[in-house]
Each structure stands twice: as C-alpha cells, then as structure tokens.
Amino acid sequence: MYEYIIGSLEEQALDYVVIDLHHMGYKIKVSANTQNELPNLHSEVKLYLHQVIKDDEVALYGFATTDEREIFRTIIGISGIGPKAATGLLSQFSRDELISHIINDDPKSITRAPGIGIKTASRMILELKDRYKDYAPMNLPVGGAKALSDTASEAINGLVGLGYSISEASEMVARAYLPEISLEDLIKGALRAPNPVKGR
User: Above pLDDT 90, what percent of the chain?
Assistant: First the structure.
C-alpha cells in the first residue's frame, strides 16, 4: 500500500524512528543499517516502506534503499522468519554480507543474528542459494569469500564495538582483507585503511 515516505525525522530510537509528515507522526521500524544512513534530527528523510498487518498489529518498516527492502521481503517469505527476525538480520549484516553467507553455505555465521538458530539459517540458505547464485557482493573481495565469512565478520564486529557503523566497518575490512590474514592483522589493517565515509 505504501511505497515511501518523505518527511522530517523527529525521533530516533534503537529500532524505530518517528517521521513527521503534514503534522502526523509515523512510527517506522528500522534496521541498524538504515539507522546508520539517517540524517540529523529535524532533517528531511526518505524511507522506502513495507507494511505488515497482523491480527494484533499494523506496523510500518522503513529502509534506506530499495535493495534492503527487497531482501527484507525475500527473507520474511521464508517459513519461521518474521519481520522482527528479518530486521535483526539486517541489523547484524549488510545486504552483501548476508548474501555472501547464503551463497557460501555458511549457516553458522548467520546464527549470529538475534533469534536465528542453525535450523532457520540452514533453511534460509536452502531456499535462497539458487536465487543469489550469480550475485557478486560489491563490498567484499571476489574470491576467498568463504574465508572472509568468519574472519572478516569478526573483524567487522570488532570495529563496530569501537564505534564504527556496520557499513563503515564492512568497507574498511574489505579494503584490508588478504587471503589467510589473521583476525588481529585484519583489524589493524582495517584501522589503517582510509575510511571513505568519515576520512578516518
């Protein structure tokens, strides 16, 4: 029913935002990835929307890009994965990271997302692997993606713990990654690599 909303960002919480449009406040649930793309409070923002209607709830989910909304819609089509779990996946991983875990048959990494067990992760891979088999993630090196799944993900999590956003950490790690690199060296290299977002 809704395609997108453009309005003033009036409130930003851990997992939702409030956007004022014509003096009406719309509460919209968002992932950490979308949170990282938001402007300052009281600035104009555009979010692509997906409406979820349940017996006890009508909710709006917002996304910074149509690509993120597309994979959200794909994920919630899998049995056992609802909007909350899908949002958790898109908060834990960038779109490219998640697709990399899928095409590399890596359910263990996917289980790092809240509410996702090994059976659900394996089902996700089974249902989506063919869909993304020809997909080449843009933010990860071509080749060596299997090795990247564990070491790079741990490095990204470490950088997020230092205050970087998921998208920033992903780009920094991708620039520093080398085959068979250790976690410690990868984090050190990522910190030395130029950050294209903030110029760190």
Answer: 50
Q: What is the mean pLDDT of the chain?
A: 85
Q: Exposed e or buried b for every residue in 50-89, given b needs 16+ CB within 10 A?
A: beeeeeeeeebbbbbeeebbebbebbbebeebebebbbbb
Tokens representing 140? 């990860």
For residues 166 and 156, the answer to whether their CB atoms sit within 8 Å is: yes
Contact 92, 35 (CB under 8 A): no
Q: Which of 51-55, 59-63, 179-183, 185-189 has the highest mean pLDDT?
A: 59-63
| CB 186, CB 177: distance < 8 Å | yes
pLDDT at 137: 55
**pTM to 2 decimal places:** 0.68
